[in-house]
């Protein structure tokens, strides 16, 4: 069996052309080195097999050398081409590496600058918000200072529910300070409508806000009372002051409508009472006496 395998290999190696040798080897049965060694040892043909393999190797080497020698110039050309391509490939790799390094550097620089710019923009936004809030706080404190001046220029009066030792005071503004306080209050309320949530956490502003709300309640209470009293007594200066206060507070229309409705209701009541309370004796005086009494009551109501 080993001799048959060796014979097949020698037949393949005996051909002249390397291509024919390779084709014959491919067409031959598969060559198993371990199986050949075992067969050669078992059959006692180890030396013969080794010598045959040596001859086959020599023939293959000679055929390979002849093939290389026959195509030496072509092989050298291919080698030169490969070397040229290798140089170009190395150069291309170098350019790619430089390009990648440039891209990484540009990306790092761009991303870093973008992050830095984003941080600066965010910082600028916070600074603008703080600046706006600071201006609001400054304006609010100034307005509260004006309210303090208006209160200090007036006389505070003890409330009706507070005794001598209770220390319960309520704010009472003079008629001269009332319109000034109303103007300041209007601006304070506008600031609170926009910034109340952000101003709640400012310790410096908290007591001033409480004071401003107290003054606002007092100003509205006094203006309401002044308007009612002015309509009853026809006091033009008090009426002007009350209307000016309501105008400054932005509620003039509502207050005028309320006052007109109250005056109309009061007038109807007064007319009804006047017609009801006509003296019966004037009515017994005949039509002329009753008419005179009626117009007398109407004139009294008109006055």
N→C terminal distance: 152 Å
The assigned structural class equals mainly alpha
Largest pleated sheet: 2 strands, antiparallel
Rg is 58 Å
Question: How large is the share of residues in beta strands?
Answer: under 5%
What's the helical proportion of residues? over 70%
Pfam families: COG5_C, COG5_N
Subcellular location: Golgi apparatus membrane
Protein name: Conserved oligomeric Golgi complex subunit 5
InterPro entries: Cog5, COG5_helical, COG5_N
Brief synopsis:
The chain has eleven helices and two strands.
How would you describe this structure to a colleague?
- This protein is mostly helical and 303 residues long.
- Among the domains are: 69 residues, no CATH class; 116 residues.
- The protein contains 11 helices and 2 strands.
- Strands 1-2 form a two-stranded antiparallel sheet.
- α5 runs antiparallel to α6, α8 packs antiparallel against α9 and α9 runs antiparallel to α11.
- The longest helix is centred in the middle third of the chain and has 82 residues.
List the helices and strands and how they pair.
Blueprint: H1 2-13, H2 18-27, H3 33-43, H4 46-70, H5 72-153, E1 157-158, E2 169-170, H6 178-199, H7 206-233, H8 236-249, H9 252-276, H10 280-284, H11 287-302
Antiparallel strand pairs: 1-2
State the main characteristics.
single chain, 303 residues, mainly alpha, 11 helices, rod-shaped
